[in-house]
Design brief:
The complex is a heterodimer of chains A (361) and B (309). By secondary structure, chain A is mainly alpha-helical. Chain A folds into 2 domains: 2-39 and 165-353, no CATH class; 46-142, abc type-2 transporter like domain (abc type-2 transporter like fold, 3-Layer(aba) Sandwich). Helix content of chain A is 63%, strand content 6%. Chain A has 13 helices and 4 strands. Chain A has a 4-stranded mixed sheet with strand order 2-1-3-4. Chain A starts with a helix and ends in an 8-residue tail after the last helix. Chain B is an alpha/beta fold and 309 residues long. Chain B folds into 2 domains: 3-216, P-loop containing nucleotide triphosphate hydrolases (Rossmann fold); 228-291, Alpha-Beta Plaits, CATH 3.30.70. Chain B contains 10 helices and 14 strands. The longest helix of chain B is centred in the middle third of the chain and has 16 residues, at 166-181. Chain B is elongated, with a radius of gyration of 23 Å. The chains are: A mainly alpha (361), B alpha/beta (309). The interface between A and B is medium-sized, with 23 and 30 residues.
């Protein structure tokens, strides 16, 4: 009963602290939006501007074939600002069909100008694409059957866009941050104010006080995760194909891991400022090297051991496998084991160094 | 009435400093017992050892016959504590806090019961307010309410009025008197002698970790030989040597234009003072005759003021 009362009290204090709530829930979403907008923008759609000054059927069929290509956006350019757009990188190539370019076609070869930007890979790739398209048209007009046919068969590799990659990463990062700072800040504030000493005088056992704190923090993490998943899915169009129960289990395991590390921080930090410093010391490197914003499979060799020592990497990886790749929990059981091991080790440290009072006189 | 708290030969050392040095006390059931002394005298350390917060290095403490150490859990239901620092959680209402603390003792406290308790500490009108919106005095009274949730036999108040304005202090005094009237024993520390005189049935004066006197406030004051203090101001300096020669004057002191001394024979010494002033053509103002107080007792015992460091 007193345990339940303590849990309820914790939930109330969390829910009423509007400033902290803002950081807990709005911050990850802002992060998501920011990175999603900057890096996640339809990267794989190429744009071509077609300047068509001719009225022949050939010109029409070229434009038509181009617009049939997947992931190629054709802009009809009447004003002639296509070159300007190419220079600014707003289109990847400009195709010019001059008036009378196909005079006496097919007796005389037609000549078409393609402008591209050699510094852009996508622009370079346009050369090949346009060449292939025109070749196809040519063959169909002179009725020669192709000697080699390429049958493309798409393999469902479940192509991940950047935002698909990002969402599990941001989720892992948010779980880490609220775990590292949430409980530790509350704990150290209460210790500084003497609330912990006062609680020590009541019959509420330490284990129940801590347990209530963990449950509160887990609830925060679950709500945070649910919000991020919903927003990722409905606003950023992330396809979540993993089982939600597996996802929830990972969220809980991951949160517990970072909450316990937060406890260690709380045991060592004397002030809330020290909590922030220690939290940053542990959290910042993980944010950048833990595979949140970019894959860390190809980091230099000397960085690899550092990456391997980061709990965040295991959480981000396993969340990614389950959430957007649809893997079962058994696929990530190594990651889960690492997280549980870290939790256990941190728990032992936290219990050993727990302090009721700021100054141990 | 027998004693409810028995302390003998209590010792606490921090490094080389004996913060509490062989203290023995007995607190009677139903009294308000005061521990008076300057900062660093060992008041708080003594109190926190009795409460079970700090482990003594030596000596024994029993509360209602139960030893407080080595297992302080056994006395938790007997005592209610207000710590020196107001230890309250943010973002809870006053009533929620009271009910939360009650739940720690396994007490399911209803709304009306909580308000009844808050009424006792004159805080019922703030029952729905957030704790961080309370004034200093209100927070202290809430702390007292929290100390009362388990209906304890003994209440410990550590400097309950430090930092409060006079009005808030009076309000808190009446709360303490009410609690005591209900039969609860109160042990409080203070460095306000006025507080000890108003509230306490007995006072232990502590200095440097020791109890240097223990009696009722009247008993302590009566123990002073020269029991009347005379203070006045004079715009022009008075001849101190001539002043000192007035019969039965002792502990003469002068700070700027303010003078004070103690006198055994009030009538004689005042007459001499006025004659002296007349002869030197000095105008005496703000003449005040007062009985000694606990401040004077402390000064007499230690040669220092209560709030001097």
């Amino acid at each position: 009963m007193r345990f339940a009362a303590m849990v309820v009290a914790n939930i109330k204090t969390t829910a009423r602290n509007k400033q902290a709530l803002f950081f807990l829930f709005i911050f990850p979403i802002l992060f998501m939006a920011l990175f999603g907008l900057v890096f996640g923008k339809s990267q794989d759609v190429a744009k071509i501007a077609v300047v068509n000054q001719d009225k022949s059927t050939l010109a029409k069929s070229i434009t038509k074939s181009l617009s049939k290509i997947d992931k190629l956006q054709v802009e009809k350019d009447g004003q002639g600002d296509g070159m300007e757009k190419l220079k600014k990188g707003k289109v990847d190539a400009v195709l010019v069909l001059e008036k009378g370019f196909a005079k006496n076609f097919p007796r005389h070869p037609a000549s078409i100008d393609l402008y591209y930007d050699p510094t852009s890979t996508r622009s370079q790739m346009m050369r090949g694409t346009i060449g292939a398209v025109l070749g196809g048209i040519e063959r169909s007009m002179i009725k020669t059957p192709p000697l080699i046919t390429v049958k493309s068969k798409s393999v469902q590799s479940n192509q991940l866009t950047y935002i698909d990659f990002l969402l599990p990463g941001i989720l892992a990062m948010s779980l880490m941050n609220s775990g590292l700072y949430g409980l530790a800040t509350a704990m150290v504030t209460r210790r500084e104010k003497g609330v912990l000493r006062r609680l020590k005088l009541t019959p509420l056992p330490l284990s129940q006080y801590i347990g209530a704190g963990i449950i509160n923090q887990l609830l925060v993490s679950l709500v945070q995760a649910a919000l991020l998943v919903l927003i990722g899915h409905y606003i950023f169009g992330v396809k979540i194909i993993g089982a939600l129960t597996s996802l929830a289990i990972l969220v809980i395991v991951g949160s517990l891991c970072f909450i316990t590390i937060g406890f260690v921080i709380a045991s060592f930090a004397k002030t809330t400022e020290a909590v922030a410093t220690l939290g940053n010391l542990i959290g910042m490197p993980m944010m950048f090297l833990g595979g949140v914003f970019f894959p860390v499979d190809n980091v230099p060799n000397w960085v690899k051991p550092i990456v391997k020592a980061m709990p965040l990497k295991y959480l981000a990886d396993s969340l990614r496998s389950v959430m957007v790749q649809g893997q079962p929990l058994s696929y990530v059981h190594d990651d889960v084991l690492v997280l549980l091991a870290v939790t256990f080790a941190a728990f032992l440290l936290a219990v050993k160094f727990f302090r009721w009072e700021s100054d141990k006189r | 009435m027998g004693s409810i708290i028995d302390i003998s030969n209590l010792v606490k050392t921090y490094g080389d400093v004996r913060a509490v040095d062989n203290v023995s006390l007995a607190v009677e059931s139903g009294e308000v017992f005061g521990i008076l002394g300057p900062n660093g005298a060992g008041k708080t350390t003594t109190l926190e050892m009795i409460e079970g917060l700090r482990k003594p290095d030596g000596g024994t403490i029993t509360i209602d016959g139960i030893p407080a150490w080595p297992n302080p859990n056994k006395i938790k239901h007997l005592i209610g504590v207000q710590l020196q620092a107001t230890a309250l959680m943010d973002f809870l209402t006053v009533r929620e806090m009271v009910r939360l603390f009650a739940s720690f003792y396994g007490i399911r406290m209803g709304k009306s019961k909580a308000d009844e308790l808050l009424n006792e500490v004159a805080l019922v009108e703030k029952a729905g307010s957030m704790i961080n919106q309370l004034s200093g005095g209100q927070q202290q009274r809430l702390s007292i309410a929290l100390a009362l949730v388990n209906d304890p036999k003994v209440i410990f108040l550590d400097e309950p009025t430090t930092g409060l304005d006079p009005q808030a202090r009076r309000k808190l005094w009446s709360v303490v008197e009410r609690i005591n009237a209900e039969g609860k024993t109160v042990v409080l520390t203070t460095h306000y002698m006025e507080e000890a005189e108003v509230l306490c049935s007995r006072v232990a004066i502590m200095d440097n970790g020791r109890v240097i006197a223990l009696d009722t406030p009247e008993g302590l004051i009566n123990s002073l030989e020269s029991d009347v203090k005379i203070t006045f101001t004079a715009k022009h300096p008075l001849d101190m040597q001539k002043l000192a020669k007035i019969s039965s004057v002792s502990k003469l002191s002068q700070v700027d234009s303010s003078y004070s001394f103690y006198a055994g024979d009030v009538q004689k010494s005042i007459m001499s003072l006025l004659r002296l002033a007349d002869s030197q053509e000095v105008k005496i103002e703000n003449l005040n005759v007062a009985g000694a107080d606990l401040e004077d007792v402390f000064l007499h015992l230690t040669g220092r003021g209560l709030r001097e460091q």
